[in-house]
Amino acid sequence: MTDTTTPTPTTTPLTSIGVIGSGDIGSGLARLAVAAGLDVVVANSRGPESLAGLVEELGPRARAAAPREAAEAGDLVVLAVPLGAYAALPVDALADRVVLSTGNYYPHRDGRIAELDSLELATAELEQRLLPGALVVKAFNGILAHHIPALTGSTPRTALAVQGDDATAKARVMELVDLLGFEPVDAGSLAESWRTEPESGAYTPIYAADAAALAVDHLADPGAPVTAERLRELVAASHRADVAARQF
């Protein structure tokens, strides 16, 4: 694994984030952000009124907005939407913004995408191409949604891979990962982000308490911490999946 960037500390601490996408990952990260003392602006494709319950649960640090406002709010933007939803994103508002992408390529949901099936691009590289001007960084894509609240603040601390091409943007995302209760691990560039994609060897099963039971009922698995040292080993040994054969 080769990493050509060196994350550099940011000078201003994170105080707020925008979150586009209110599914299990988006809402889960919003909850952790509020618990960490961050202000959160959350948006989805259905409109702010559909987020009333979530915002009430999150409390006074959170508010609902349209995607454009969430894209422009905060110190970075969490993007937790399917690839098919990228066409509706306010791309211009995301230009020059640090964008934490949590997504993966699932053909049954996203349709077949030739550049990904052929391995011409990793998913994060395609996302960067779809968001010209944004500073895309990958994180939280290699852990199941219900393992996020289960493993935050674990002992030992659970490590999460962070991948990106811009050193300052990567450092910003690593700061957020740390604030949310995880150990950030620099896992290379966007071109290497296949190392934490589905079937890679450094994907969600690594956080299972029981891998065999996870395959039977993944929601019943409570999760287990993965140390930074172990995650680095798994990322380095990861293999590139046969994406064209992926059915899920």
Structure summary:
By secondary structure, the chain is an alpha/beta fold. It is 32% helix and 14% strand. Mean pLDDT is 95; it is low at 2-6.
Task: Describe the overall structure.
There is one protein chain. The protein has 248 residues and is of the alpha/beta class. The protein has a single domain, classed as NAD(P)-binding Rossmann-like Domain (Rossmann fold, 3-Layer(aba) Sandwich). It contains 11 helices and 8 strands. It has an 8-stranded mixed sheet, with helices on both faces. Helix 2 links the parallel strand 2 and strand 3. The protein starts with 15 loop residues before the first strand and ends in an 11-residue tail after the last helix.
SSE map:
Elements: E1 16-20, H1 24-35, E2 39-43, H2 52-58, E3 62-64, H3 67-72, E4 76-79, H4 91-94, E5 98-101, H5 107-110, H6 114-117, H7 123-130, E6 135-138, H8 147-151, E7 159-164, H9 167-179, E8 183-186, H10 211-216, H11 228-237
Parallel strand pairs: 1-2, 1-4, 2-3, 4-5, 5-6, 7-8
Antiparallel strand pairs: 6-7
Look at the structure and give the mean pLDDT: 95
CATH topology: Rossmann fold
Kindly provide the radius of gyration, computed on alpha-carbon positions and rounded to a whole number of angstroms.
17 Å
Helix content: 25-40%
The number of distinct structural domains comes to: 1
Strands of the widest sheet, in order across it, are 3-2-1-4-5-6-7-8
Shape estimate: globular
List the total number of helices. Answer: 11
Q: For this structure, what is the CATH homologous superfamily?
A: NAD(P)-binding Rossmann-like Domain
Q: What's the SSE pattern?
A: EHEHEHEHEHHHEHEHEHH
